[in-house]
Amino acid sequence: MRTVPHSPLEPTTLAKWFAAILVIGYALISLIPLVWIFMTSFRTPEDAIAYPPKVVAQASAIGYVNLFTTRSRVSAEELAALPPAETWYEGLVREQQMILAGPSRFSDRYLNSLLIGFGSTLLSVVLGTLAAYAFSRFRVPGKDDWLFFILSTRMMPPIAVAIPVYLMFRNLGLNDTHLGLILLYTVVNLSLAVWLLKGFMDEIPREYEEAAMVDGYTRWQAFLKVVLPQAATGIATTSIFCLIFAWNEYAFALLLTSGTAQTSPPFIPTIIGEGGLDWPAMAAGTTLFLLPVLVFTVLLRKHLLRGVTFGAIRK
Amino acid sequence: MSNAKSTLRRLLAGAALGLTALGAQAQDKQLTLCWAAWDPANALVELSKDFTAKTGIQMKYEFVPWPNFAQRMLNELNSKGKLCDLLIGDSQWIGSAATEGHYVKLNEFFDKNAIKMADFMPATVEGYSTWPKGTKNYWALPAMGDAVAFTYRKDWFARPELRAEFKQKHGRDLAPPATWDEFKQVAQFFQNRTIDGKKVYGSALYTERGSEGITMGVTNAMYAYGMEYDNPQKPYDMKGYINGPGAVKGLKLYKELYDCCVPPGHGNAYMTEDLDAYKSGQVAMQMNFIAFFPGISKDPQVGGEKTGFFPIPKGDKQHAQLGGQGISVVKYSDKKDMALEYLKWFAQPSVQKKWWDGGGFTCHTAILNAPGFDKSTPYAKVFLDSMKMVKDFWAEPSYAQLMLAMQNRVHDYVVAGKGTPNAALDALLKDWVEVFKEDGKIK
Amino acid sequence: MKPRVFTQWTPPATAVPAANLAQAPGAALRAGGPATGRGRLAARNGLSDRALAWLFVGPTIVLLLAFNIFPLLWTIYLSFTNFRANRPNAEIGWLGISNYQRVLNDEAIWENMRTTAHFLCTSIALQLLLGFALALLLNRKFRSHSFWSTAILLPMMLAPAVVGTFWKYFFEPQYGIFNAIARFFGASGNFTMLGDTQLSPWAIVLVDTWMWTPYVMLLLLAGLRSIPPYLYEAAEIDRASEWTKFWRITLPMVMPFIILALLFRSIENFKMFDLVDNLTNGGPGSVTELASIHLKREAFEKWRTGYSSAFAIILFVAIYGMSLVTVRFLDKVKQR
Known about the structure:
Chain A has helices at 13-40, 45-48, 62-68, 76-81, 88-95, 106-137, 143-152, 158-172, 178-203, 206-214, 219-248, 251-256, 264-267, 279-299, 301-309, and strands at residues 69-73, 98-103. Chain A is mainly α. In chain A, strands 1-2 form a two-stranded antiparallel sheet. In chain A, helix 6 packs antiparallel against helix 11 and helix 9 (178-203) packs across helix 11 (219-248). Chain A is globular, with a radius of gyration of 26 Å. The two termini of chain A are 26 Å apart. The model of chain A is unreliable at 1-6 and 308-315 (pLDDT under 50). Chain B folds into 2 domains: 26-146 and 324-391, Periplasmic binding protein-like II (D-Maltodextrin-Binding Protein, domain 2, 3-Layer(aba) Sandwich); 148-321 and 398-438, Periplasmic binding protein-like II (D-Maltodextrin-Binding Protein, domain 2). Chain B is built from 20 helices and 12 strands. In chain B, the strands form 3 sheets. Chain B has a 5-stranded mixed beta sheet, with helices on both faces. A 5-stranded mixed beta sheet of chain B has the order 6-7-8-5-9. The model of chain B is unreliable at 13-26 (pLDDT under 50). Chain C has helices at 35-38, 49-78, 98-105, 107-138, 145-152, 160-171, 177-184, 200-225, 229-237, 242-271, 274-280, 291-301, 305-335. Mean pLDDT of chain C is 80; it is low at 1-45. Classes of the chains: A mainly alpha, B alpha/beta, C mainly alpha. Chains in contact: A-B, A-C, B-C. Chains A and C meet through helix 1, helix 6, helix 7, helix 8 and helix 9 of A and helix 1, helix 2, helix 4, helix 5 and helix 6 of C.
């Protein structure tokens, strides 16, 4: 089907509409669970387990309050004997016939996740960029073998190396420390980073830095001034993937951390309410936990897409 | 250097030293207690304020949710961690903790401080403190008594139309079941019935696959028909006991109950799922640990007069699966003396009474045997009755392997419908023999 | 036609488009010949290339050796012993290969491998299909396509453990939305995705596909966008049909990316633990017990460290072998 005036490569309007409907349809369907989680974070625990499920329910911030606090249940008489609630969230808690007992560990875990997630991403992207450049440009002996070796480090199930890593960490004093987990995540992400970045580096023509060196730049300066800016999209894409892994990692965080350095993923599925799982609090935790990654991805979205379209620049 | 500067330096140094000394002091007067994160833990926090007031020792807490509790704490112990000074560990860890030397042996301490194990309910002493079982080697002080029992919707049972229908059908009143046959009848009566416009179901049972759920449930039915883990005369001789006729009958009954009378999708349920099912009004009865009963009693949806309690029903025999924990001192702690002081304080009858009032489940006979105890709360009677007939799973050092094997075989049969009860228990016997052989307990 | 290859970029016969990238220093100087610069690669005032290479690659290698290879070697050592991490003071006995024999003779382990294989194949097939379809559709570049492509990425950003827990909530027949939606579309709504032995393997495939299709889509979109348009122009001139264009141009050019997606997703799903453990715990029975769940039980609940290390090594070898085959295939495709 060809309509002459447009370029033969441009899809027809009909084709575009067709594509749009299908894609938007898929997007909407796959977003339903996320929207539901978001909605659940604003419900009361009773509404969260109402059956049949309620589409519309009374909004309440109790999920978020429960997420950040620990509470204990009191009897009606004890409740009546207390002075009135000082803050809005205490009022909410009192409505459930409970009193505030203190802050929960969630904010700790969240900060840990921020520190460990972004820290290890930074480290793995920096090291990965350097290594990828070297593999791309220099004649490293046994290059292909090294590359496969790097890939193979990703093939071990984390549970399997967890015991030796645990013993190693204990001996080095890295158990339950931020540094320990940062190093570990960096190492796991390195293989992905090197592979992805090498692909992007290969796309950048050598001629530019060679020309720069002809002009008097050292290899290092050429790398910094010429290659890095062009690799920006690749670096952005790689950072997103590395962050997603480090942010959401569960197995090692579960096994290698306890009170000090534990991140959010092992914590969130166990947010217990009163003996039962506190679904609104868990949904609140999930929503808040999704935000940094979401923001990071949206900010780097242009890079992501340009990284995806990088190859099209070559004409 | 001018005089002023050097004086300043000396002052600062002095202050720094003083502060560190103060800091060290503050560090010293502090204990960390590790337990699972649930309601009784919050109650213990409140209770322990009294200890701090009396001794000036600050209490720090490390509460871990149940799903991760065993792993975290066992990790700590295995790596000789110093996180916990006091640990309220599961009764099943006693064997391992005693043989590996994780806990401090308490006999001497008890004798010196006139803490008598006779003051505590015998079942709890045997279950939470002793290793080997039944000997006089004490590794923990019974802290939290617990067993599996049932709650039921008293308000539904009181409805005249339901009572009439039930009476007509079965010739007796609709009441908390006393035997397993009665239980099945009641559960079937409620299954798929519409109450207040919603479909409801018979009972929430323990069916969890991951940690220990279904085992904690099925044993109640199996005990009722005479199941023993091994030959009482000859330890570790399990053939004909774990897979004997009583065991098979109990297992078969549990599967029938799962097939007929639980809510849809109840194939991986433990404490929290059962609570969810009950609180959302899905089920007429709920199997759960008595530790949750105070919370259920106070629940705005189903608490108060709407809920009643009854112990595990009877078969040929009547036993309830033991839960509960004892409090131990961790051998690797640097503050064992302070920790022992905590135990001394905790063992006092006055503190035990406050523990009960606050929502904990004391094991002290002075409180339990006091007149009027069984009427003090709606769940006191079921607690007393249940603790009188508890039976526990293995507490061997290799208990985890035994547990996982049983979880696997039982879940395969009850939930996944594989094979027959005989086949399941025969396979379980094989698994357990292998474990004990590896351990050297069987040749 | 030269297919786009991965590790080496060979510039097309036409001149390097220096004009496109404004930052190329000294562009005017080099209009004549990029080749002349090559001879003078030796840098002045700076480290030699050799030194730089090792400096760049060094930290990576060191970290990988320390945190990846060393534990792996330790695991291999442990697999020949009867070490138990919960009895650190016990004597470590050398068992030779008996752990390996026990693992390979265990019927339950083969069951787990079958379950894992089923999970792997179905989920990856679905993800490739869906991902490729989405990538093709998104490549049409309709208005607002960039917004929707980011929206589709959301599921992938969640923590798998949390995803597993929440889908457990969704699949609950009473208060979960999955059954409610099925009922809305006319199904009986009486089924239990997680409780039924027939349905639960599909439940884990469904959740995994929901989560990772965006990843595949992204990768394949990159592939599609890298296809030089002149190929299509040439095909148009030859009056090729849509199908021929797809079969002869699109598919072969995207093939390296498809294989890459296959490779990465296979490795991840073989190791899959947190999602499925939180979703089903391996139940009902052991119907969804993947290899790594069984491994976790052996290693961290039964504390049979030596035995589980042997199992881990066997798994590793399996993944390694699978990857090796895939990468060889990838190289072959690149050479076409």
